[in-house]
Amino acid sequence: MSGHGTPIPMSSHKCGPLKGEAHVPGDKSISHRSLLFGAMAVGETVVTGLLEGEDVLDTAKAMRAFGAEITRDEDGTWHVHGVGVGGFAEPDNVIDCGNSGTGVRLIMGAMATTPITVTFTGDASLNGRPMARVTDPIALFGAQSYGRSGGRLPMTIVGAADPVPVRYEVPMPSAQVKSAVLLAGLNAPGETVVIEKEATRDHTERMLAGFGADIRTEVTEEGRVITLKGRPELKPQTIVVPRDPSSAAFPVCAAIITPGSDVLVPNIGLNPTRAGLFYALQSMGADLTFENEREEGGEPVADLRARFSPDLKGAEIDPEGAASMIDEYPVLSVVAAFAEGDTVMRGVKELRVKESDRIDAMAKGLRLNGVEVDEGEDWWIVKGRGHGNVPGGATCESHLDHRIAMSFMVMGMAANAPVSVDDGSPIATSFPIFEDLMGGLGADLRRD
Ligand code: S3P
């Protein structure tokens, strides 16, 4: 588990053109949900293409502790025998969700309306992250929580014995909070209503509908109003997990900044609640095209072709699209360093409460590598130096954050001097094949 093992110092050295196909792993959000919703269905859910990263494996372990039977065939097919809505057993021990905010927050929601007592913990990053955003709404269902000061893990939750449905307006743009409330609503009688002002990733809504829940979304003046009927019998599914656009971001951005590159990243989901980065890159003049556009499992999918883009220009990134690219700002800031002019990113306060404070972590590392950054509580500006003028040469702290570590590895591919991170081990939480995949394209990544 990241943060529990030995740190892995890594460096990335200027490389020749990146060429070839990048087959990135399965979507992290959909992988967590496949295991969790499968565990709440009655019967056997079969999952292929699951992301076998540490975050998701921690969720699998947790679901076993709640009574689901989960097995993996040698060919990578996963089988989940669920216990049904309201059927979770009380785990014998503490649930350790490692580095994963999605894992812990969704599971907290899912158990909040079952009368069991569960203690959650995680690594140093997760134990520093705010959980009141979930414990506040689940208290409305009747669950009680006892955490550390500031609503931090470790935390014990006593699920409601007699839950009531709720109507809840999510106060920040967060798919994890929205999902936690919906999952709590599954085992409450009547209708639970969740309102979000800004659209966030909608995998929970789409997948619960696929599992047979009665769930509908209306777009009103209040925002997106999602209504879920409690106590359904969820029907097991066969799920093919699409490849993760948030992982695709790394080879795509690497190709855009590395001279001579031409990389194809096949089969990437372009769900509009996830694809914001790709449009932002195009607005900066990146040579990024969508090939073979099609629909799979009700979602738009395409092969992404990214080529070296020598004339990148800084841009104002539309704050309205922030939620659709929230995990991609770190690597976008690296591309911005190679653009001419300022890239302005506003409406991104949520970046401060991810696996690390991502504005702070990126700003510090970019400055150490010769790139100027201005920042405020909910905005930052990267002052692009233009292609060929990014100095590099420094070691950055990854703060137990996979996306920070991978972003600086991408920076080193095109900076004038190598870029290092103190610890690349968190990369295994979401992209365990990152080094091999990027090396296969021509990147020069080293463990120091
Ligand atoms: C996720 C939601 C987002 C995202 C995270 C995955 C999910 O978090 O950053 O990587 O799967 O629901 P927030 O809900 O905190 O925005």
Give an account of the 3D structure:
The chain is of the alpha/beta class and 448 residues long. The chain has two domains: 10-26 and 242-447, Alpha-beta prism (UDP-n-acetylglucosamine1-carboxyvinyl-transferase, Chain); 28-227, Alpha-beta prism (UDP-n-acetylglucosamine1-carboxyvinyl-transferase, Chain), CATH 3.65.10. The chain has twelve helices and 24 strands. It has helices spanning 28-39, 54-65, 101-111, 132-141, 175-186, 203-210, 245-257, 276-283, 329-337, 358-368, 402-414, 434-441; strands at 10-13, 19-21, 42-48, 69-72, 78-83, 95-96, 117-121, 144-148, 152-158, 167-169, 191-196, 215-220, 223-229, 238-240, 262-269, 287-296, 299-307, 316-317, 340-346, 372-376, 379-385, 395-396, 419-421, 444-447. The protein has a four-stranded mixed β-sheet. It has a four-stranded mixed β-sheet with strand order 2-15-17-16. Strands 4-5-3-14 form a four-stranded mixed β-sheet, with helices on one face. A hairpin with a 2-residue loop joins strand 16 (287-296) and strand 17. Helix 4 (132-141) runs parallel beside helix 5. The longest helix is centred in the middle third of the chain and has 13 residues, at 245-257. The radius of gyration is 21 Å and the shape is globular. The protein starts with 9 loop residues before the first strand and ends with a strand. The protein binds shikimate-3-phosphate. Shikimate-3-phosphate (S3P) is lined by residues 29, 101-102, 174-176, 179, 201, 326-327, 350. Shikimate-3-phosphate binds at residues 29, 101-102, 174-176, 179, 201, 326-327, 350.
